[in-house]
Design goal:
The chain is of the alpha+beta class. It has one domain. It is about 55% helix and about 5% strand. A hairpin with a 5-residue loop joins β3 and β4. α2 packs across α3 and α3 packs across α5. It is globular. The termini are far apart. This is DUF1318.
Length: about 200
């Protein structure tokens, strides 16, 4: 049999039997719910607005002073809330590492007892400098900022209303739980506090 005839017969056999050599790519795009994606999109837009506000020039190319763009009070409050979170990020991370605070299932921080006795050596100086009043004030400020951001997410998203606040809280709680580091306290959906592994 000639080589060309063999190729034709082989090709027809493949076509008739339904075999294919095509490569199939399956991609999982996201395991997040649509609400989580809406919240993350709105939160990221807020974060970008904060960066834009920080980078706006106060003078035009000719050296004349420009008026800053006008924003609503809610927008200003949300930008300030993001700044408060960023300002306290270092302290909050350490509070969670030494188990003075944990992420609850409502998107907020829950304070725990300030035990200064069982602190890892590298965090000892950090822990010793905080009074109960300072610790409480930081937790309060960060939780207040988180509340403002949750409200702003509702305000900015036409698909959300004040009736969705409980779902938004749960979603923020879930996202904070997912982002928690191993060894930090998190509250699961059953109201139980566990140490993330």
């Amino acid at each position: 049999m000639r080589p060309i005839l063999k190729k034709i017969i082989f090709s027809w056999i493949i076509l008739l039997t339904g075999c294919t050599l095509a490569k199939v790519n399956v991609e999982v795009i996201s395991e997040r719910t649509s609400l989580e994606n809406q919240i993350l999109g709105t939160y990221n837009a807020l974060d970008n607005e904060m960066l834009m506000a920080a980078s706006v020039r106060g003078v035009d190319p000719r050296g004349n002073i420009k008026k800053p763009p006008r924003h609503s009070q809610e927008h200003k409050d949300a930008v300030t809330a993001l700044q408060v979170q960023a300002f306290h990020e270092y302290d909050i991370t350490r509070f969670k590492q030494i188990k003075w605070a944990g992420e609850n299932n409502q998107g907020l921080l829950t304070p725990f007892k300030m035990d200064k006795n069982n602190i890892p050596g590298h965090l000892s100086d950090f822990a010793q400098r905080f009074t109960q009043q300072e610790f409480d004030a930081i937790i309060f400020q960060v939780n207040q900022a988180r509340e403002i951001i949750m409200q702003r997410v509702i305000d900015m998203n036409e698909n959300l209303s004040k009736d969705d606040i409980q779902e938004i809280r749960k979603t923020f709680g879930k996202l904070n739980r997912e982002n928690a580091l191993a060894g930090e306290k998190v509250q699961n959906d059953n109201q139980e506090w566990v140490v993330k592994k």
